[in-house]
Design goal:
Layout (H helix, E strand, L loop, with lengths): L1 E4 L1 H8 L5 H12 L4 E5 L2 H14 L5 H13 L3 E3 L5 H11 L3 H13 L2 E4 L14 E3 L5
Parallel strand pairs: 1-2, 1-4, 2-3, 4-5
Amino acid sequence: MKYVLDSSVAFKWLVPEVDTDKALRIRDDYNLAVCELIAPDIFPVETTHALTRAERQGRVTPAQGATLLKDLLKNLPQLYPYMPLLSRAYEISSNMKIGVYDCLYLALAERERCEFVTADTKLNHVRTAFPFIVPIMSLP
């Protein structure tokens, strides 16, 4: 099974949150070649941004953040260039009134005909239009 992996799920690999156990299960399945994980090539930037935000919030120290970034880079999904996805992402963003960053993931999942696993609850309102969105909270 192939999944587009949202950076919000990968962040749970690094910093414990609700549903971290589910996110770690996805990572472990990926490392065991049970599933394939893909993402737009903005993925490491977005995940690193979330990590620095956690540092500013006092959830991780700078030293922990540096170590967590190294861990992230060892577990990256297969990255796809965002440029070929940008026109479709713009169209989705314009129609659905959601951020273009999120729409790059949607455009990739749509193009690759696979599910998009996310922990981003603000995407719940577009699930009718994009039934391949899988909230991590819905996973066993």
